[in-house]
Amino acid sequence: MKILVLMKQTFDTEEEIFLVDGKLKESGVKYVINPYDEYAVEQAILLKEQQGAEVTVVSAGPARAEEALRTAVAVGADNAILIDDESLNGDEYTISKVLAAIAQKESYDLILAGHMSVDDGAAQIGPRVAELLGIPHISTITGLTIDGQTARAEKDVEGDLETIEVQLPALLTAQQGLNEPRYPTLPGIMKAKKKPIERVTAADLGIDVAAIGSKTETLTLNLPQKKSGGRILEGELHEQTAELVNLLRNEAKVV
Amino acid sequence: MVTTTSYSDFQQDIRNGVREVCARFDLEYWRKSHEENLYPTEFVKAMSDAGWLGALIPEEYGGSGLGFTEGAIILEEVNRSGGNANQVHAQMYTMGALLRHGSEEQKQKYLPEIASGNLRLQTFAVTEPDAGTDTTKLTTFAVKKGDKYIINGQKIFISRFNNTDLMLLLARTTPLDQVKKKTHGISLFLIDTREVGEGMIEATKIPTMLGGDTNQLFFSDLEVPESALIGEEGRGLYCVMDGMVAERLLVSGSALGNGKWFVDQAVKYGNERVVFDRPITQNQGVQFPIAQAYMELRAAEALMYEAAAKFDAQDPSAGADANMAKYLCSDAAYHAAEACMQTFGGYAAANEYHVNRKWMQARMMKIAPISSNLILSYVGQHVLKMPRSY
User: Fold this and answer.
1) In CATH, what class is A2-212?
2) Residue of B nearest to A71 (CA)
3) What phi-psi label fits residue A185: left (phi over 0), alpha (psi between -120 and 50 degrees) or beta?
4) Mutation test of the interface with chain A: which of B20, B70, B264, B268, choosing the one with the most A Cβ atoms within 10 A?
5) Chain B contact set for A188 (CB, 8 A)
6) Predicted ipTM of the assembly
7) A57-94 pLDDT per residue, tens
8) B386: left (phi > 0), else alpha (psi -120 to 50), else beta?
9) pLDDT tens digits along B167-226
């Protein structure tokens, strides 16, 4: 079985976010594998251990994403591909076209990804790539068994558990709870250091950069407003109600 | 978290890797281990399984063949996470005597198993009630009988005896009054404690402020096969000398990790703790000792890396530097412990704040594995060529 894992390097979720001149401050920041992608990587490694598989991880850059790919190799991925081409930066529309082009270079039985990245949080890449490849897609899975060419995935649906069967090839996106990602061992880290990482550009993929330009544009970037302390209204119930209406109308100006 | 010296990518990977393991074992885990005298078996297993405790064993024997700079970093990160590196450091370096002085057969038999963590080599029995720093005074005695050695005597302050498979043991094979040089006549044995006969080793626990597994051992006609001898009979002390320098480096790293933990804790708590309407770290009396300890740690760290690099390069001056680094790292860490304790005030006394436990561990490093005064006398006599002071 050949498995492709789509992954992204994101801010460590414990990092504080700073904006400098309207841009995200990236220097001195610790980067990690997007936590949902970690579940995808772990699932691929588990399948490799349980039934044998060749696991390839891919990330659509930037260059620093190599660290994340090496971490994936350190925990057991066989191959790593870095899309190392700044002209391919873009939104989910662009990136999914690029990742689909990668997926088409080989015939993968299974494509795994996190259901979203914790930075942009768009949750579009998985479904978009599946659409572009014309293969079925199941999102936010919390359980998976593979039997021959049949994948059986579980997912939470409003507190219930839904089980979905699909024929491979398919693309599945991982939700928290799918597994417990392992950490790299020292021998794994040392092996990953020596592993060559395949670097590809638009030309290698036969992509016309102009044709896949972003469909969206970021106008401004703002931090959420600081939360101020709440207010507890006092008095009889009808007094509180009157005061609440007054505040909603005159202070918050929402009614 | 305080920033520190810059490292190579690989060293940073090591830090991240060890942090990943340590993150699974929180401060409450360590508090419980300390208060209930429980050996942190799960932590030791996790560190072994991830290959960190076999880091210093050469690749040909199943380890990763890293140097002592990396070894010190591994233990630094354990303590920096709030853990207790003392519980694992022996597994990393005690094998050095076997590696450098054991026969090929002994190395093939034990090193790969130690590297994988299947065999625990956590105990190094040297100290006796009347022989501590003056190791040549030890009286535990091994007599050769046929193809066996029969060992009698006692050891004290022997760590982790109940949580090890193998034990290195120093014993006299020629009495002190019959050797030309007092450092002669001592032999080194690698004993498989699982094969020891009933009643041959009696262990009594010594409760200490550090918790853990510290023991007094009595040997009564302890029989070991002659194959347990490491190196040449009578030259055992020379087999462990390198290991003692190695231990200084690893303890330096451990102390450094404690020091950084204290600084992190003091800064975080002090910045949040408001008294008289301002954070207490706004007071110079609180702020300056933390800043001073931080600077001392940085300086000690620089010497530690120099010493470790020299040791890895087999530079003969590594021994003196490693001792100096151990002195400075443990001293700086203790100053950080003091600053942290003072910053926490009364809360430092409460076990749930973890500062008192770490403070005791930090204090111990000025005593063990060698007292600070002995390092001063060594530097005075051997580095600066002043008269022997003891």
Assistant:
1) alpha beta
2) B13
3) beta
4) B20
5) 51
6) 0.88
7) 999 989 999 999 999 999 999 999 999 999 999 999 99
8) beta
9) 999 999 999 999 999 999 999 999 999 999 999 999 999 999 888 889 999 999 999 999
